[in-house]
Structures are given as C-alpha cells and as structure tokens.
Amino acid sequence: MELRKEYFADERKDDLKEIGQPRLRSDALGHVTGTTTFFADRNLPGLLHLKMVRSPHHHARIRAIDLSEAGRHPGVVRILTADDVPHNVYTILTLIQVGPEDETVLATDKVRWKGEAIVAILADSERAAHEAAERVKVDYEVLPAVLSIDEALAPGAPIVNEYHGQNYYRYDSGESRKVRFGDVEAGFAGADHILEQTYGSGPIEHAPTETTGCIVVPEGSGRYTCYTNTQAMFFTLDNTSIILQMDGAKLHMVGGTVGGGFGGKVDVIVEPIAILGAKLTGRPVSFIYSREEEMQISSPRAAEKLVIKDGVMRDGRIVARYVKAYIDAGAYSRHSPYGAQKSAAHFPGPYTVPNVWVDSHCVYTNRTPSSAMRGFGVTIGDFALEVQMDKLARLVGMDPLEFRFVNAYRDGDMKAHRQPTEGAALIECMQEAARASNWPVSEKYLQMSSARREG
Amino acid sequence: MKKVPVQFTLNGEDKAEFVESGATLLKALREKIGDTSVKAGCQQGTCGSCAVIVDGELRLSCLTLAERCDGAAIETTGGLAHGEVLHPLQRAFNEGFATQCGFCTPGMIMAAKALLDGNPQPSREDVVEAISGNICRCTGYEPIIQAILAAARANSLSAA
Amino acid sequence: MAMRQGRGVAAVNYPTGMNLGGDPTQALVHSTPTGNFMVSLSSVDLGQGMKQIMAQICAETIGVPTDRVIVDTADTDTGPHCMGTFASRGTHRAGNAVIAAAREARQVMLEVAAEELEVNASDLDTDGAGNIHVRGAPQRSISIFDTALSAHFKRGRSISGRGMFLIPRSYPDAETGAMKPSTCYAHACTVAEVEVDDETGEVNVLTVKNIFEIGRALNPKMVEQQLVGGSWMGISHALYETTEPYYPSREHGGRDFNEYLMPGPGDLAQTEVIVLERPAADGPYGAKGPGEMCANPQIPAIANAIFDAVGVRIDTLPITPERILRALKANGTENAGLVAH
C-alpha cells in the first residue's frame, strides 16, 4: 500500500504522534497464540444444545405439530414452541419505530420461507438435539409460493406476509422510497441519447469463518449472561427484552470479539430464543449455527433488480437519470426497508446529474429473509451504475474514464437527495488511477479538482 | 453413549480422557481438554479452522475420530509459544498484520507449521498449496502468504 | 478460441454511517491511579481492529503513548451505548465519542498537573511520551504517572471524561426524498485487467489497481488490511459468490465452502492499493469509513474489463463462466455491442 500524501496536502496536518502510526494490533497476540476468547470458547457444566426444527417448504400452513416422539427422545430436556415466546411477533427495527412487526420467533400457523424456525429442541448433547429434531412431526398444507421480485409484484400474487398486506414495504411515500430532483422527463426530452438497461444479482452470503451463535448462562442473581457474536450489543439486548418481555436489567450481553461479521451478525435471531431456553430450564444454553445454517438460514445480502434509464448528451453530460430499484427482502423485513431507503439516497452515484428520479422498492418473497451486508443498499447499485457508465461512454464515443470526469461531483454540488456535496475526492481518485494504470486521459482532466469547478 | 479411553500427548503434555465413541478430535480437544485454540468453523472439513498436527501430519480435527488418536502426538497453535517467546510463524503473523478477526489464524498457523516442518524453504506456490484448505474471509490471503514466507526466511536466518 | 485480455474501470463513493433512527455512540474514559487510561465502550470488534484504533485515538487526544491505553468494550454492564458495528460507522462514530471523552479527561489531567506545577492549565502541553510540561519550558514538567497519583491520592480528582456522538434522526421527505442518510463519503476508483478464456468462459483477474480516498489513515497497516481484504471480496462477489446460483430458483444453494465459491490463495489478482487522504470535517482526525466501500469498485471494473476482453455484457451477478459462455453463444462471433444478457 502506498499513501499519496501529495493529494490534499494543504487540507491536512501530518503532525500527529499516534494517529497515522502503523502500531501493531493489540488483539493480534491473542489471535496468533490461539488465546483470544471467542463466544464459543467456554465449557459449562450442564450445557444444553439448541437445535431448530425448520420448514422444508417455501410457504405452507401448519395444521398440527406433534412433539410426542421428540419429547420422549433420550437427552431432550425441553421443547420450545411459539406458545413459550412472550412477544412472538416482532421486527428488529421496532426500536427506532420502523414497523410493522412482521416476523415470528417461532412459527405459529404459517411458514413463509424454506428454513423458517418452528420448534426449538433443548437437549443434553448436540446429537440428541439433532435426533429429536428429526422426530418432530409437522403437518403442512403447502401453499403457492412467490420466489422472485417479478412474481411477487404480479397482479393476484399470493400474499407472502399478511402483516404487510401486500408484497412490498409501504413507506410514507407509498410503494417505494422516492427521490425527485429536477425534471427527469424534460431531461430525457432534451437528451441526445437515451439508454435503459436492467441489472440483477443473486443473494450473497457473508460467510464469516465463525458462524452466528451465543451461549447463555443463567446467573444466581436472576440475570442472564449472554456471550454473543452480535455486531450490536444494545440492539440485541433491547430487542431481546421486547421479545421476552423481560426487564432489560436482567440481561447482560458480553461480546466484542467476533470471527468476522460483514453485516451478517446484526439480526437478533439466536439470542432471544437461547435466553428463553436458559430461563425455562435453569441451565446454560448454546445455540450456534451449523455451517449449513450460516449459508442458507442466516440472512444473505439481498438479490436485487435495477432498471436504470439515462439521458446523455453528445459531449458526455448525463442530463437525466431514472432508477427503479427492487430489493428482494425475502419473507420478512429485518433491515431491508432501511436498505432500500439507503439505496434510494445513493443514486445517482458520485455524479452530478440535474434531473433524477428514483423509486426504491423493498419486496417480499417466500425466500430466506435478507438483511445487511457490507455495502448494504449500495454494492449492487454501484455494479449497475458503473456498468451503465461504461455503456454510456461507449454510446457517446468517449473514453470511459474521461466520461466519468465530465460527470463527477464536486464540492458544493447539490445531490439528488438534497444534501450539498462536501469533501469530494472522486476526481483525485480517478486522476491517480489514470496515473497508476497508465490509462491515458486528457490533461484537462488531470487539472481538475474536487474542491472547485474550472473557470 | 459408550465411552472410550484415549491417551495422547498434546503439545508435549500427557493427556488422558474418556470420550464418547465416535467423538471427533475437535470436540475432545475443545470440550474435554479445554484447548480452545482449535476452532470449529464448519465441522464439515471445508474451512481448516480446526487444523491440528497429528504425528507430524496436518489433520482436520473435525474429521478425525478422537479414539483413533490414541498414543498420538498432537500439536495445536495453543502450545506453539514457549512462554512469551513466540514461534517464528506467530511472530510473522503478528508483525505482518496477517490476522484480522483471528478465527482462522490458529488453523492457518498449523497448516503453515506442517509445511515448514517438512519444507523449511518453501516457494510461494508451496505456501499457497499448504493453506489452500483453510478459509480466510478477512484478509484476502496475501498477508498470510507473506507472513509464512517471512517466517521461513526468519527460520533460515536463525539456522544459519 | 483464445485467451482474451481486457481492462475496465469503475469509480464509486460510499456514505459513512446509517442514519435511520438517530445514530449515537457513547464513550467513557478514565485514568488508573498510575496514569493508564481505560476506554469503556460497547462497540464490537469484528476483526477490523476497533480496539486498537480506539486506543490510538484516545492516546493521541490525551497525549500519551498508545500502549498506555486499554480498551474495554462490548459488555453491556460496563460499556455505554453504541448502535453497533455496521454501515462503516464504527471508527467514525465511536472515534468521535472517544475524542470527546478523552478531551474531557485530558482537561482534568492538565488541571491536576497545573496545581502540582503551580501554573495555569492552559499553559501546559503533553509530550506524547508520558509527561506534561509548561509550553515553552520543557524542564518544568511532571509525569502523567505522578499526575494521576496526585489526582487519586492527594487532590481527589477523577481524571475522566464522557463522550458522545449523535447524528440526529433524519426523516426523508415523502415527496422529494430530501434526507440526510449519512455523513462524510469515502471514494474509490479501480482499474481491473482480466483474461477471459472464450472457450470455457473462465475469467482470471490479472491485476486490480485500487485508489481509495478514506479521509485519514489512522493506522496505515490496519487500513491496508481492510482495503486488501475488501478488494479480494469485491473480486469474489464479481465472479464467484451467491447462495442461489440460479436465482430465483432455490435449488443448488451452497451449504459449505466446497459449494459456496470464493477465490482461494491460488486465485489472487495482483493487487495494488493507493490511499489518498482528504480529511472529513466531522471525522475523528479526519477519518471516513472505508470498510464497505473498499469491496465495491472491483465488481463493475471487472464486468467492464470482461466486456473489453470479449465483447459481452453480463449484467447479472455473479459473472460466472456459464453466463459468459451463454452470452458469447448468443452473440455468435460478432462484437456484442451494448446489450447482452
């Protein structure tokens, strides 16, 4: 890695003593000696293992659940169903007043995705828990499922999630989070070329080497200590408090050493049910995702569909940008309504476009609920935008890098979501990229500055 | 479950335990003996986080039966340092910023040790081959490859 | 049938933080009797190095070496509230909270030292090595060790500070979408060179040159860790990763690391990272959040390089050999032009 100090040198004092120093990491000694304590690195006498019984169907009504055989299985200590969960229907963003509550901790009358949790087995050993889970009998009436954004939004589509009433999240702005800036139709009318393209992506897994999990210890004080690899301590504590209707003062979350997160450990899934198990059995409980659960059950990055329509002038200026973004939330909201909103604010990307229209939709399907991942609401949008930029450059016969200089945002430019641009540095990144990769660009672009416009 | 006795050395120390028949070496080390430097990343043999050295060979402890290790000499990253004196691989991983979350690190170091024990001056290709069964999600692998090569260089200097 | 080379570019920005319901993080700092400093937080270290960076920020602000600072974090009994580690917010939000707490602690520390030295606190400065001296008269000094002892055993002062950083909630305007969803933006531009086998559809990423603008590299080696690892993840997203290879079909989903594909140590692109620093006005020592941004520009840069190499556009991620072959087949031997799916 090289630090190029010549850029922005006049905006920066390089006289600090500790900041900017390549100090060794204080945690690395523990890592290399194997002594760093991750949440699962504790042995507790009497530890119970929690195993979920999960739906094999994308969408089904639950007619009946028969626990009799599982309950008799040797080693089984307790079986939890929806009836045991004090506040079973929840949503994690309820803490900041983003509703409605739309997800069950344990399914009651319906399952809405293949893998949804129905019954939790608590047993003396992992093996007994697995064996008992196989012996739970659930009688399903399989329902028609919608598995894609297009199916979900088609007229007459089966409703995925009754708590929403339609297969998309309803914002105060309607069926999508909207951004309206300038007059996009006038922009298209005056454009030399118009290009409309559709982009897509499949879901992506965070794949941390340490799977999601927690170990809960009931303390003699009546409190519960939860060793967790959550990415958000109080978010987890407060949501657990709501789901279990338990005073937050009884909860003690300990974490902060996490074997990779990438956004995959911001949902509050394992902690409430494990704490409930500890409460109802009086014994420590471990709930740790298997690798298969991490891959297929934990929230992935959403699949997305993006339609981008641009109006561009022969000289390379983009004069109108219209974006319809669809984020496949799966069966439940989790963080997706926010992701779609963040996506709306991100367009039209780091470019100054006078006329912008964005509709960003959060769509429900009978799929594994998606949630945050590194680049939430942005990564797939950036893929689409930057491939579109390449196509536009070729359409007007310009070099793709020079085309970006023409449109790059500068300090003071108003963004589509009506925030003035500050601290821009796209131009300087592109200048250095041109130099580092011997990508020929005209001298006038190498003279540009993010801090001011020419002339 | 039927329990079976198993005796082996762990990082040079005698250990004797009763384990469930069919229990993995991973479970025996972590839950019976308390060596949590061995990590359970997948328990399917696909991530390398649980790698240990058994009688000089790299093994995935999640796919190794504990009872088959009777009489074996087992090495783990937890026993690699001598007091405060780190093994050259540990030093190289630390000083080379080759760990981020740290979860894959003990397994990586075992894979690297198994390599250097048999091939003290490996090529880059040798290193890549040696760690190709170990998943790291944070680093992009390059710092790990560089750290292992640095440890090999440090070894050759100290041997010279 | 041939190996064809191509080059592509992409440029991106990335917002710091997630302003949904207000975006707060709090920090507490206090000294021990012998002049070490404890930082109490509830922020989570996911491996990005939160603990180390908060120690460096606290040390810089108080004016002590980093190894005098201990970070205690992610225990809800001891650490004040942090929203969490996501949205590239950790360093920025917690860093600002730590600076505020450390400033307050430093002020008390200087007041105690001033009483011992019989001068005004405003005339004092730290040397960064563990001492406090009169500005312009370095021989009139007291160690932080002795200052802390005095505070604890003689003066009855608590060398401590409270810090908090809150971005107030922004409600988007329903009609226009006017909103303030985040704070400062990091930037990147990546140039990727690829080799595409037009017989198998396989893509080999030869080089990625990443230029990242991140505000301030608080610890350059740790920044390098994040950026190099992120660049690898970007390449992985572009070419390999998905839990549903035939989305929206739910079949064929990977269940382990044999089925869920990522580039291994033998598949690495030659990776170059260059960092620019334009300090953010609201960032801790100017830092922005680069943790997510650094994995984004490689994806479109590679997609554009593949087009440059073989003339087909793959507009759906991941860009698998199958998708490339199908696109090549659909386009025959002619240049694909703008659109191919």
TrEMBL record, chain A:
Entries under Gene3D superfamilies matching the protein: Aldehyde oxidase/xanthine dehydrogenase, a/b hammerhead, Aldehyde oxidase/xanthine dehydrogenase, molybdopterin binding domain
A Pfam family recorded for this sequence: Ald_Xan_dh_C
Segments crossing the lipid bilayer: none
Keyword line: Molybdenum, Oxidoreductase
SUPFAM superfamilies: CO dehydrogenase molybdoprotein N-domain-like (SSF54665), Molybdenum cofactor-binding domain (SSF56003)
GO molecular function: iron ion binding; oxidoreductase activity
Domain Aldehyde oxidase/xanthine dehydrogenase a/b hammerhead: 33-144
Entry keyword annotation includes Metal-binding: no
Name listed for the protein in its UniProt record: CO/xanthine dehydrogenase Mo-binding subunit
Species of the source: Mycoplana azooxidifex
From TrEMBL, chain B:
GO MF annotations in UniProt: 2 iron, 2 sulfur cluster binding; anaerobic carbon-monoxide dehydrogenase activity; metal ion binding
Keywords: 2Fe-2S, Iron, Iron-sulfur, Metal-binding, Oxidoreductase
Transmembrane segments: none
Pfam families tied to this protein: Fer2 (PF00111), Fer2_2 (PF01799)
Domain (2Fe-2S ferredoxin-type): residue spans on this chain: 4-80
InterPro entries, alphabetized: 2Fe-2S-bd (IPR002888), 2Fe-2S-bd_dom_sf (IPR036884), 2Fe-2S_ferredoxin-like_sf (IPR036010), 2Fe-2S_ferredoxin-type (IPR001041), 2Fe2S_fd_BS (IPR006058), Beta-grasp_dom_sf (IPR012675), Diverse_Oxidoreductases (IPR051452)
EC number, UniProt record: 1.2.7.4
Keyword Iron: yes
Keyword Nucleotide-binding: no
Name of the protein this chain belongs to: Carbon-monoxide dehydrogenase small subunit
Organism: Mycoplana azooxidifex
From TrEMBL, chain C:
Top-level taxonomic group: Bacteria
Domain Aldehyde oxidase/xanthine dehydrogenase second molybdopterin binding: from-to ranges: 4-267
InterPro entries assigned: AldOxase/xan_DH_MoCoBD2 (IPR046867), AldOxase/xan_DH_Mopterin-bd_sf (IPR037165), N-heterocyclic_Hydroxylase (IPR052516)
Entry's Gene Ontology molecular function annotations: oxidoreductase activity
Protein name stated in the entry: CO/xanthine dehydrogenase Mo-binding subunit
Organism of provenance: Mycoplana azooxidifex
